Amino acid sequence: MERVILSNRFVNELRSLPEEVLSLRKAMDERHFGGYTTLNIIQLSHLQNDVCRHQLQQNLGSLIPVMYEEMKNALSQQLAQCDTQNWQTANVYRTVLGSVAQVTSRAFVGLPLCRDPKWLETAIGYTGDVFAVSQDLRDKHWLARPFIYIFLQSRKRLQARVQAGRSMLIPLLKARAEQLPEKPQSDLLQWMTESARGADKAPYRLSDKILFLCLASIHTSSSTAVHILYDLCQYAEDCVPVLREEITRIIAENGLTLASINKMKKLDSFLKESQRINHPGTLAFNRKVVKPITLSNGVGLAPGSFISMPSAEIARDPANYTNPEEFNPWRFEQKRNASQSEANKHQFVSTSVESLPFGMGKFACPGRFFAAGMIKILLIILITQYEFQFPGEQKKRPINSYLDERIAPSTTQAMKFRRVSQ
């Protein structure tokens, strides 16, 4: 669709504008035909954002051991055929996607549903079906869309996913509501139930919002983790021993906690450098202009227009990064160590005018702290408990695929895994 591409020098004057002027939710809803794809659920309230920004983030410390336990369980199933003697060749994307879906579900809906194959298939498949409907309608005339929509196979699949999600979540939601506050659970389902007001209390609406959060988290986190794993495999000789030393030393000193994970500066730096080189898309800071905006240079943005910023190119701009085409795993650790004032900047979850994959401002991704913790736990387990390598003579990571504005890691690449003797 037609968009106005803005320089990132305008981020700071746009980042705090209210939704009545510049809207992320309206942009997502309209760009992906929310009335047809169910994404209009995000327009009904801020509940899903508020719970991620507050309860999910505040409880991340207590979730870390739970996520670690669930990730070990998921990987032991995904890599069940390998041991200390035998290598297992596995599709990387499917392995990571299945593990991330299970761990995300543990934090979102708890046990035992997080290990239910039907739920995992629904949580993973919902995203693909939403974007399939959007893609099927995109090039159709707006007058024809309601009629074409009726006959889409993607519509039938999507509606079946939503119904499957409701059939599993609504009984849980009702049970949770009846138990309040006697048996509070520590998961997103519980926090949504406790925080819902008015129409948001309807179980079907809560169910649909949880499915949306699965869409927002599972595939994006999986793709980011796959990119990182490909980079780690390519640079394994130089980086894996360094990361393994940092991880084992910090865990030995402090145990596996959120605080100890946050001390792993080299691991954090590796994640951010991989994300810098392998952006989730060519564009970020996607918004719809609701009311007229005049930029500081006098240019006017008309209501109804859509804006974006070229985040992938910003991340490769020599004005922002020295030798931007070079993969420097410790780039951001060096920036943080440069001075006391920089120590808490340049983290994987940090946003800035030079780093926009998580957005910026009041609607920066509220789940990025959870996603970062989960990805780090995945890597901590793989680095300390497994060996991994590309098959055969392959030394370099596979190239990324580009579709419209999306940048995706290979979904066909295999890797070999073997357990490390403990």
Automatic annotation (TrEMBL):
Gene Ontology terms describing biological process: secondary metabolic process
Q: What keywords tag this UniProt record?
A: Heme, Iron, Metal-binding, Monooxygenase, Oxidoreductase
Q: Which CDD domains match?
A: CYP503A1-like
**One MF annotation (Gene Ontology) recorded for this entry:** monooxygenase activity
Q: Identify the residues that bind heme.
A: C365
Enumerate the PANTHER family for this protein: CYTOCHROME P450, CYTOCHROME P450 MONOOXYGENASE AN1598-RELATED
Sequence similarity: Belongs to the cytochrome P450 family.
Protein name, per record: Uncharacterized protein
Q: Which organism does this sequence originate in?
A: Aspergillus cristatus (Chinese Fuzhuan brick tea-fermentation fungus)
